[in-house]
Specification:
The chain has about 220 residues and is mainly α. The protein is built from six helices and no strands. It is elongated and about 65 Å long.
């Protein structure tokens, strides 16, 4: 019964990861559409509306979905035998996700906020080509990660003993934390993945401790 329950919560974590990843990609495409309108329209009012909608979409939908997708992906790597660096496809997804989060949080969101502020100050400018390219690369990166998850190419990046699957509570937390953060973000009006970061930190700390114990015990098994 305990094993079956753990498996169900693990499946729920995978399901949430897939749903939020698809949502992230969908919002990225919607954002690309709005920024394209802002970039090409000659109507100032249309540019202001498109840029404002893009900013709201990024804050209220894209960012929370991106945070939840990244968190559940990291938790699946940290809570199962897949790990972060055992397989090239997992490592590739990990690196791409980190780049996307950095670009989305520190570059794209900041640029959108500046554009909205300029529009409200009476100086509306069309979305830049850099913003369009950035969002297009985000959507393309997500599509590539979906292919990696299906194809699982390139084999193992390194060998070594696999860690056992984490206990049930880890997968429960992996489902509850992002949903709680999304709810809190909608109430506050901005994304705040605080609980997800706490859960991920606790799991990574536990995984590191397990790796140390496994390494220390390895000579005794030889």
């Amino acid at each position: 019964m305990g094993k079956r329950t753990s498996q169900r919560w693990r499946q729920a974590t995978v399901w949430l990861h897939v749903i939020t990843s698809v949502g992230w990609m969908g919002q990225a495409l919607a954002l690309f559409t709005l920024l394209t309108i802002s970039h090409t329209s000659g109507d100032v009012a249309v540019r202001i509306a498109a840029t404002s909608m893009a900013h709201e979409l990024d804050t209220l939908l894209l960012a929370p979905l991106a945070n939840a997708s990244a968190f559940t992906g990291f938790m699946l790597a940290a809570a199962t035998a897949w790990g972060f660096t055992r397989h090239w496809w997992v490592l590739s997804k990990f690196v791409i996700t980190l780049v996307q989060l950095y670009a989305g949080i520190f570059l794209l969101s900041g640029a959108l906020q500046d554009s909205v502020a300029a529009a409200r100050a009476g100086d509306p400018e069309p979305a830049s080509l850099t913003q369009l390219v950035g969002v297009a690369l985000m959507a393309s990166g997500l599509a590539f990660q979906a292919w990696l998850s299906v194809a699982k190419p390139w084999g193992k990046a390194r060998t070594g003993a696999k860690l056992p699957t984490a206990p049930t509570w880890v997968f429960v937390a992996a489902v509850v934390a992002p949903l709680a953060d999304i709810t809190a973000g909608l109430i506050l009006g901005f994304p705040l993945p605080a609980l997800s970061l706490i859960v991920l930190t606790v799991r990574l700390t536990g995984r590191r401790r397990s790796l140390r114990l496994q390494t220390a015990a390895a000579p005794a098994r030889v």
